[in-house]
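>> received
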Amino acid sequence: MSAAGEEGGAKFFDKVAQNNANQAALAALAKKVFDDVSGRVSGSCLVDGTARVLDIGCGTGSLLLLLADKASAAVGLDPSAESLAVVKAKLSAADAPPQLAGKVHVHNTVLESVDSIPESDRAQLFDLITCVVVAHHMRDPSAAFSVARQLLRPGGVLCVYELEAGPETDAAFAAHYRHGGGGHGHGGHEGHGHGHGHEDHGHGHGHGHGHGHSHGQHDGQSFEEWKKERGVHRHGFSCDDLVNILKTAGFANPTAQLAFRTPLLQTEVNIIVAEGRV
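>> returned
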């Protein structure tokens, strides 16, 4: 997992992937991202159902399945096998939307090269690639996003959603650590929070977020050990950080701005979005 991540993050998110307490919050975050990203895709491909989408660090599939409902094909990548098992269970459930049948393919991998995706799922390029609260789990985000750029069709867009770096987010991580929180969810009691799928977790986005339960302690781990287990390499990014990362990845004129606020890490934090087009 050189370009996209390694460490123990995937193993950690394997352990917490089955926590149902986070699903409502994951769905709420995914809906915010879906509403925002729908306005960023050129043309009407998310309206007429012709879009091909890729979600880097899809986690348990909250965003991936929303995108799939409006796309012709949706591919998700995540290093957490247990998170992907949740996606597959959603797709095979009796109440699964029939229009998703055959549209969604998930792969237990990170985006190190175009070959990370089976040829059958990359024979056609993508209109939209998303990466939601995953880049802070990546050792080298530019390397992963350089691969993403190669997978976009002309006119396609990469949308990277991330925590905004700063004192507020630093304090949120510290509070989450003190509460023994799992993933990115709100700590509760007895159990684990869940992390969003991540390409380089480290998660799966799910890239989890939202309200989850935690042990209420962290087994004597130091703050740095706690972050390492979760594959956290940084506490977020500034808009300039993400613009520079996308420039290094080969995007000509990337932009970044505040997208919305959302409950994560024991509090509300800012989510910024960076856009790269080819």
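>> The beta strands are 51-56, 71-77, 104-107, 126-132, 152-163, 184-186, 209-211, 255-264, 267-277.
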